[in-house]
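Contributing new records

If you add data, match the layout below exactly. Sequence lines come first and carry their own label; structure lines follow with theirs. Keep one chain per record. Anything else will be rejected by the validation script.
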Amino acid sequence: MIALLNSHTIRNKFLLILMLIAILSASVTAGVLIYFESIDAEKYQQDKLVLMSSIISPSLTAAIAFNDIETINELIVPTVKSDGVFATFVYNNNDVLITKVYQDNLAGNQLKEEDKVETPLIISGENQGKLVFYADRTVIDNKMSFYKKLVAQLLIGTLFISLILSIILSRLITGPLSQLIRIAKTINKNNDYSIRAPYHSEDEVGDLTRCFNSMLDTVENRENVLESTVIDRTQALEEANKQLHHQAFEDPLSGLPNRRSFYALLNDVVNKKKEFCLLFIDLDGFKEINDSLGHDYGDILLQQVSKRIVSCVRTDDFVARLGGDEFTVILNGLTNEEKIGQIINQMLSSLESVFHIKSEKVFTSASVGVTLFPRDGSNVDTLIKNADQAMYESKRKGKNRSHYFNEEMSRQLLNKQEKITDLHNALKNEEFIIYYQPIVNLQTNEVDKAEALVRWQHPTKGLILPDDFLKTIEEESLMDELGYWVANQVLSDRLKWHQHSPRNIEISINISPSQFKSKDSLLLQWLSDFDKVSLPQNAIAFEITEHSLVHDHFKVRELLNDIRGKGIDIAIDDFGVGYSSLSYLQQLNLDILKIDHSFIDKLSNDKSSYGLCKGIVTIAKELNLLIVAEGVETRTQHKLITELGCHYGQGYLYGKPMPSEVFTHQYINQHLTD
């Protein structure tokens, strides 16, 4: 008896109670004992399943959310190894079976609906699935069978005592389980996986407690790993955000704030209504450095320029790179022109000093536009526009200097904007007209060539000459459109003359360099249209400037060859005042060379001009080029260009530019009457 009391197993304790009941109880109490033991067994099994559900459901829910099948199996396999669980099923939120386990050597056809216990798996109020236990009633059935056989042999007088002892036994068994359930609920409520259940005995309940604590160890370790992962990923996101901020607001080449950062700060200081000075800085000749030395040298130059600009301003000033070779400086709280001048002079002097890039010595300078807030503008757009205009005024006046914005510049800007608007309307409304200036054959005194010159017939300002609008046309990228209109108009006139007169007069059309640049140029479209018409050879000539020959020389040469193949002559205009070398005359297939009027003006009183013209004529003749002298206004000049051997003369002496109708009457219709 003492040995049984000292036993560590529930079974031995249970045998001890049965022996006491056999001695003390009566058969009258047998039914009561069986009833209470049945309830106790059922409750024991139910509590056990509830406890197991509460232990594994948090981790199981997380594993389902991450679709971690391996972790799900690790959590549910131990459940069928404990008494009272026949099988365990796990379903997702669509009632689709994820996984299942059975006791060893048991088949699934033994499952009964009355033995099923379901536990919903919920996280953050959202259903992730359910956990289903099928209870194993074998233990309960065996116990109840044992009790019935034993109770039948008990004395009726021992029933009351056996009842009391069974209740005591029940409390001894379920008490630790109830405590485990309370601890599980506390853990589930507070998400504190550091709590552990205390050991009360070395029996099956003690084993269950150890299993419970072991599960908590696993869950706590997983929580720690998850927390560490979250911290690492948070840090990675913070680093990524810093990098994105750097890319969004800093210039990667110079390390200075970029355009976006500049606009944000400028908006801020304008909104604060504090006085400041805005500088717009543009490097002089940067493109030539890039083209001659390469972009890697240009990048290094921009980095060194950035450092020099920063070194010339105060610590509370703001320097940014807008892009390319454009920089801006905000001089905070400074509107005193004398102090501003000191900073600008220091900056210009610093940038004027030699830059050492690799093994090269590079020289540059800067043009600076200056605006003051609020004097020169009350908002960001106005300040930037005025500073930009002041910077271009610095370039216009010789570069390597600064210029303050003033009202006169504002008026010029308004006039320019008005002109731009008028030019757009002029192209839309076809306000341009063609004038033709005759070109005289010095051998026959016949007009067999003419130059097409565009004029703008403004609806209110009258006739406007090209010098007053062609530069703006180029700046606004409208030259391709205007050139296309001019070429079409000339082609239309030339076709009419061909239909009504046998006389073949060659008409020269001026072609701008910008018309060569794009693959979608309207010039190419015009050339395609030209192929479809029927005109005699050399009815049309294209005049190009020397400047056209400098950029994309090989591309221009290829295009000129195509043009000449269509029967169109190529003339180089204003020769002698541009950038071309004599080698271009050899490399390009040209037909006509036009000597600029600036040399013709000085022929009679400047020996060097005469000698230069003579040299040009000699070279042109060696290359079999026709020579046209431009700007001939006097008989003396006519005599001299004839002596030099020029083939043609053009100028007011022979005829001023005239409308198409007048030219047609004098040189086309008049020829018919003759």
